[in-house]
Amino acid sequence: MNNRTVWTGKHDEVVLAVENLGFPGELGDQVARQLGSPKAMDRMLAYLYNVKPQSAELIVDEMLAICSDVERWRDKKAAEEANARYNEILNFGLGGGEE
Fold this sequence. Notes:
Structural class: mainly alpha
Distance between the termini: 48 Å
Number of domains: 1
Oligomer: single chain
């Protein structure tokens, strides 16, 4: 399966799960689009299936929490990469090991 097929499948699953809870499919569509990745959508699906939220606000709150976690993870990875490059410069200089 290619990435687009996986994304579409997860998107459709989020929409269906939201509809099964009695909310409009458009809410599910927007939630899935905001989450962006199949892994984030899996987290949302686990929430929807296990918690069965009773309001759209709870669904949106969880979506925002997941998006915040994803953003925090991306920031952490970017900081680790920058730190690794900085340490490389400290250890080997700007010439990449030839001093």
